[in-house]
């Protein structure tokens, strides 16, 4: 099938329409506190029946089948004696069954903990321990990972295997299949409201071990209905989703928004740059969801004959940098890109309805009193907002980077966007800031540095902890990476700060993957023109590939540990020598001179 219209760069509807739809669709959440997502799915099953809901190469559910399967999981949870607030862990890769499982557990009053399928050993046992589940549902393909975590468990959940017989554990899918699939009676159905916790979703762990964030039924509805309105999802739409379902976007927001709209979702187990466009055209998708460096991978993939042979009308996600935006949209003929910002635990969402390249959103003036974050000056070394002589935070000027804060209120009409914290009270308290602009006020710390331009557009600058300080200046790794990636041939750039002898702070370093042999003099000249002296990386490390996490974030920990020591890697490292104003291979002799503090950096 061919595309029906020529793509128009940054094509966007009038922003007011999108905001109005989102407000209308979420208006009844607080008015009907006992109408949860499972209730909406039952209504849709009655109306849509055999219409496709969740699709994959492994299995497919119509609306009727999805509701029936979720009902079976609800009855399983009730048979196991799961009471309101008790936890069931879920370790399973992407598939329609995943959504039916957590929805069924949540409908029984349980809390489904969505475990990262990339973890094993102590990190996985930590995630289990912090929620202390009564039961663990483990897909057969994840049993080896689970086995490595058993020794580190401090609780004793009953383990159920999904998809294959196991010598030590019961098989849950065979049991669930035999349970009644019809609608629950009033006697069976527990009394739940939007205030009850439905899910535990884990943070990425970029600042320590992952934390389990509380996600209520209200927030699930807020995400699904708001997103549905912003995208104007229609029953004829079909969304392609290859993001991990243990993540709030891939597992809750995208399928939830599609289902409440009567449309369908195509689920793929994982992202594949080589298969992406084939999947999009084969399933006749009209939308897809992206995250992080997803689009950069597609942009650098070899040309494919089918990459314009699609019906995509909109690509939606977060993390598309300005240097990728226009090239991606033009090469793949994407009529519209909707970039947004949101966090699993926070009460803030921003939407770039206007299609401004690089921006993460803008709040219309008529809604600023309800949604707009405040940016405050931030002290990088102390990792906290700057306070004035009176002890209050200082708002940022236009284009001045600062931490984004969100006012915490008790407004019941905004139940879906409140800060609900983590299972760890200490971790929850660390995200709150008091006496920000007046005594007694309370604000949520996003942990993100942003800037806001004169037109009101917000731009992501960096995660707190990623930004480092050099020469008395704050260096944002995201902005340096964008400058590097705008040089021809640079595919990926991982930027971080490293310690150096005889100097305070951290100096810049970047690990790059490139096409062919880089033109080092031209690359250095590009950086001289693009970045101020304090932000230019002193060390460049060239790699054949880069490691990423399950949510398409770069893995930096090992790179930071190795710093610029040529003895710890076989990768080529170059040093921007201030004496010669050129990039030189970093051999042992040059490394020892740097370590001895012989360079004025």
Strand proportion, as a percent range, falls in 15-25%
Number of helices: 18
Please compute the radius of gyration using only Cα atoms.
25 Å
Number of strands: 30
- Pick out the low-confidence regions: 1-10
- Per CATH, the class of the domain at 37-42 and 57-219 reads Alpha Beta
Mass-distribution shape: globular
Mean pLDDT: 90
Structural class based on helices, strands and sheet pairing: alpha/beta
What kind of sheet is the major sheet? Answer: 8 strands, mixed
Here the CATH topology of the domain at 37-42 and 57-219 equals Rossmann fold
Question: What's the SSE blueprint?
Answer:
Blueprint lengths: L14 H12 L10 H12 L3 E4 L4 E3 H17 L7 E5 L4 H12 L3 E4 L6 H9 L5 E5 L3 H7 L8 E5 L7 E2 H6 L19 E6 L9 E5 H15 L6 E4 L6 H13 L3 E4 L8 H7 L4 E5 L2 H7 L13 E5 L3 H11 L4 E6 L6 E4 L8 E2 L5 H4 L2 E3 L1 E2 L4 E2 L16 E6 L17 H6 L1 E3 L7 E11 L4 E7 L4 E3 L2 E3 L1 H9 L4 E9 L8 E8 L5 H11 L8 E4 L14 H6 L9 E6 L4 E4 L2 H8 L6
Parallel strand pairs: 1-11, 3-4, 3-5, 4-8, 5-6, 6-7, 10-11, 10-12, 12-13, 13-14, 27-28
Antiparallel strand pairs: 1-2, 8-9, 14-15, 16-23, 17-20, 18-19, 20-22, 21-22, 22-23, 24-25, 26-27, 28-29, 29-30
3D architecture notes:
With 601 residues, the chain is an alpha/beta fold. Among the domains are: 37-42 and 57-219, Rossmann fold (3-Layer(aba) Sandwich); 466-595, 2-Layer Sandwich (GMP Synthetase, Chain A, domain 3), CATH 3.30.300. 29% of the residues lie in helices and 23% in strands. The protein is built from 18 helices and 30 strands. Helix 2 (37-48) crosses helix 3 and helix 8 (217-231) crosses helix 9. The longest helix has 17 residues, at 63-79. The protein is globular. It starts with 14 loop residues before the first helix and ends in a 6-residue tail after the last helix.
